[in-house]
Amino acid sequence: MALRLNETYLNGFVSTAETEKIAHVAEASLELVRSRRGAGNGFLGWVNLPADYDKEEYARIKAASARIQKMCGVFVVIGIGGSYLGARAAIEFCRSPYYNNLKKDTPDVYFAGNTISSSALADILRICEDRDVCINVISKSGTTTEPAVTFRIFRELLEKKYGEEGARERIFVTTDRAKGKLKEFSTKKGYETFVVPDDIGGRYSVLTAVGLLPIAVAGIDIDAMMKGAADAREKYLNAPLAENDAARYAVLRNILYNKGKSMEILVSYEPAAQMFAEWWKQLYGESEGKDGKGLYPSSVIFSTDLHSLGQYVQEGLRTMFETVIDFKSSADTVVIPNDPHDIDGLNFLSGKELHDVNRMAMTGTLFAHNDGGVPNILIEVDGRNEENFGALVYFFEMACAVSGYMLGVNPFDQPGVEAYKKNMYALLGKPGYEEQKAALEARMKN
Ligand code: PA5
What we know:
This protein is an alpha/beta fold. It has helices at 16-35, 45-48, 55-71, 85-94, 118-128, 145-170, 181-189, 209-217, 222-237, 245-258, 274-288, 310-315, 354-371, 386-407, 418-427, 434-445, and strands at residues 3-6, 74-78, 108-112, 133-138, 171-175, 192-195, 263-268, 296-301, 320-327, 376-381. It has 16 helices and ten strands. Strands 1-10-9-7-8 form a five-stranded mixed beta sheet, sandwiched between helices. The longest helix has 26 residues, at 145-170.
């Protein structure tokens, strides 16, 4: 089994009576996903995606990624939120956080358009000087400011460098099938386009072209990733609550939330999972944080952060619980050498494998945090690979949908994301926002 929920470190924090009491709510929530009768049911395309995806487009993704690998040394992925986090998470998880620095026969991959920082963009533009570049702009709406502005800048760069015809071959667009400015513009310019399906929201889109094209460009086996997700679908879609770890995880986090544990920390002992945690935070933050409700999703990488946030987790406000992803094996073996003089007093570790030491740090921390009053949910994974990435994605997506319904929110909308945009547009003088601009300027004067 690729994933397994381990509840050992919840002992004393969640009782059988509590899980039994809430079971009917979880069953009903799971049924809302299956029957497609819940709020936001127009956005359930991710449920069957691993088993039922557009095979023609999938083949085009593979063909385009092979062309991109030949054409360029730098591949710039332009997108924000759900339009970039999944791909970045997959590349770091399946390959390495140092992917760009590794010896490899695939292009470096940089992510732009996820900030409005001029310095961040200027750095990537400098990296692109004197190197062959292809870009993939990803925006479901086709109107998001950050990627739209960045795309304009990169389009100019590519057209200057390769001419309009040459640039056309190097620009790949992932957007709505038929509507939006980006789609219109791409059709006019003749760019190759890929689709963000209507019924899949940004944060659930990593296994569509949104994630798959950049992931394939990085040389990652997307067939294995889809297989992992398809296997997880078999396990978590139809299994009853008692045998369904994804729904069970939703139950546990809802019980903890109702007992005042308002913050969930996703923990991993692998730095390669840091961006996966960023993907997870968006998934849960945007899906549940609404109507004055929702767990606050945060993340740490231990043991690194045991030396920064560890103190707070051990002894600070008791309003949190941890969900630990335990990677049982590592693809890399590093053995601690013996020192005949034992100057550093570390010979008790001689011959030990670093991954085993890391997992002992984990077990020690689980007990310490339990003793400090912090419940821990453990998700055991046999290792970091494509299949397990796909399985984790599906596991967390299913759990998020069930959990959101249990909480009584629509897990598929994100109305709050618009508030800053409207103010920004008004302040920047976008036509149609004149009244809001005047109101904001009056507030600034006060
Ligand atoms: O999950 C979501 O829907 C959002 O985070 C979007 O992915 C993000 O806002 C980017 O939107 P778009 O792809 O329309 O540019």
